Amino acid sequence: MTSTSDNWQKALPLNWIVQRVAETGSTNADLFTQATNDGAPHHSALMADNQTAGRGRLDRTWEAKAGANLLLSLLFRKSSGDDQPEIAQCQRVVAVSAVRACRSFVTDQKLAELIKLKWPNDLLIDSKKFGGMLSVADAEQTFIVVGIGINIGWAPDQAAKLKDLAVSSLFEPVDLLRVLLEQINIVEQLSSQALHDEYVNGLATLNKLVRVELTNGEMIEGKATALDLQGRLVVQVGADMRVIDTGDVVHLRDAIDE
Fold first, then answer.
1. Residues of the chain below pLDDT 70
2. CA distance 86 to 147
3. Domains of the chain from N-terminus onward
């Protein structure tokens, strides 16, 4: 990995330790290794101009054109041994912060409101994906790495990019990085309830008919009715309510209450 110029660091929040590399296989894998072997501290971050082995959920490839998009991993040291709730909490912090940051670059408020979340970890412009997150924790649950990719200037087929909207200025991934870190600092101070409420307000999945593929291969279809405080999706399937910890969700259409 080859480091790039340090000039971009001057405007970043001082409580973040950010490395930037020209190219790597996976920022998540690299930062996880740094946290495990080198004791990288809380609020460490690794940004790459290009990834050759970026991954999304379910081991999907994350495509990006070199230098065009934000490719970033963030390290959060945990203060307790809690498992899923805190992983979900960290991911919600990053998700809410990403929505705030991306919307801040859009001059038209109505267009900005097209930026939404899809459960569990996608960023949407209208109905098209333009970003995603992948979180990993160590076996002892002492730290969490949240990887996030956001399409800014390039997108693969069937996806969107932030510059599809009327952005406030020509900006680079490092500009979005700065605002994202600033927003994380703010969002981390929210109460759990306030964070939950803002996440839910930005979630496009609720009140949609959805198809969910569970990790055991089971497929269910129903109405996404709620998100509980642990970040789990509640889906009404016939007369039953299913609580989904993790799964791959497809939005089918808006639900119509009878």
1. 1-6, 54-63, 79-85, 255-258
2. 16
3. 7-201 (3.30.930.10), 208-254 (2.30.30.100)
